[in-house]
Amino acid sequence: MSLIIGMCILLGCQFLGEIISRALSLPVPGPVLGMLVLLIGLLIRGSVPASLRTMGEGLLKYLTLLFVPAGVGLIQHFGLIRQEIWILIATLIASTSVTILVTSQILQRTARQRPAGKEEEA
Amino acid sequence: MNALGLEQIWVYLSASPLLHLFATLLAFILATYINRWAGGTPLLHPVIVTIALLIGFLLLTGTDYATYFQGAQFLHFLLGPATVALAIPLYDHRERVRRMLRPIVVGTITGVATAVISAVGIAMALGADPETIFSLAPKSVTSPIAMGIAEKLGGIPSLTAGLVLITGVIGCIVGPWIFRLTRVTDPTIQGYSMGLAAHGFGTAYCFASVGAVAGAFSGLAMGVSGLTTAFLLPPLVHLLGL
């Protein structure tokens, strides 16, 4: 029964998220708003119900499997990909490297300004 | 059994959702074994191998994507509730977030802006199609959120899904190298940067190769940057009138 309750909480939040997204015609995907709804709910409640944790963590554990159906959809874009393959590869490598570089440097600089934090684990 | 019988069975199976759902799960198990056998290299990430196996299977059997998706949609549907479930790790890390609020806010906004602007800028400079650019913009965000954003922008969600996966692989390869070169040793910073730039792949890498703190921060970054991108990117694109 607990899996069903957990799934109902997740689907309920997603449902609310979709309604909010559509009603206010927000450019944010429904499930993302559902995630916010759930986060606010958890903060108000002060704990994660066991049923929700079982279902939610089960889904997150296999999150990578859930990407597969969409990823196979690449098969429809072979034409586009072949045409722009070098653009795509160059963009992805350059942009990902720059993002990691900038983020880590900014974090290092802003984190240094706070009183030296303790590192519990290396 | 004669050839005609086999053919009839194939006709039945190839039209029912059962075959392709089953094939997806089997391919995933096989890919997990292949990755373990290859020593867990991010180049042969289970998801990439699964997708390659399935694309090969569809090409060999001459099946079109719509038929495949009839079976796979049951897994695809779970992306929605899985996105909602990302609230659980975010909630678990609320204390840490409060303690590091300033660096996290500044780092997330700069990081997300860098990810989006560099992707769009480079692709535009190289002369990519608008559809490709919209599909590239959310590439650093975890797939379920990225696909939602691409759809809202007018990109191609399934192309985005693939680009997101490749971004994850690239992040796992260049990240450790960048940290060594710039002497970033703090596991919280390594984790947060990896999660922001390379979503779930970065998180998995951090848990496996850096440590638990880095992994937790990476997961946090994945959730926070996903939310930030989802809220900032579509209005930004509308504003730019792209």
UniProtKB/TrEMBL annotation, chain A:
Instruction: Write out the annotated subcellular location.
Output: Cell membrane
Q: Which InterPro entries match?
A: LrgA/CidA
Where are its TM segments located?
33-52, 59-79, 85-107
The UniProt record lists the keyword Transferase = no
Q: How does it sit in the membrane?
A: Multi-pass membrane protein
Swiss-Prot/TrEMBL keywords: Cell membrane, Hydrolase, Membrane, Transmembrane, Transmembrane helix
Q: Provide any one GO MF term from the record.
A: hydrolase activity
Top-rank lineage group of the source organism? Bacteria
User: What protein name applies here?
Assistant: Murein hydrolase regulator LrgA
This protein's species is: Salinicola acroporae
Automatic annotation (TrEMBL), chain B:
PANTHER family linked to this entry: PLASTIDAL GLYCOLATE_GLYCERATE TRANSLOCATOR 1, CHLOROPLASTIC, PUTATIVE SEROTONIN TRANSPORTER
Cell compartment(s), UniProt: Membrane
Keywords in alphabetical order: Membrane, Transmembrane, Transmembrane helix
Q: How does it sit in the membrane?
A: Multi-pass membrane protein
* Protein's name in the database: LrgB family protein
Q: Name one Pfam family in it.
A: LrgB
UniProt superkingdom: Bacteria
TM helices/strands, residue ranges: 12-31, 43-62, 74-92, 104-126, 159-179, 191-214, 220-240
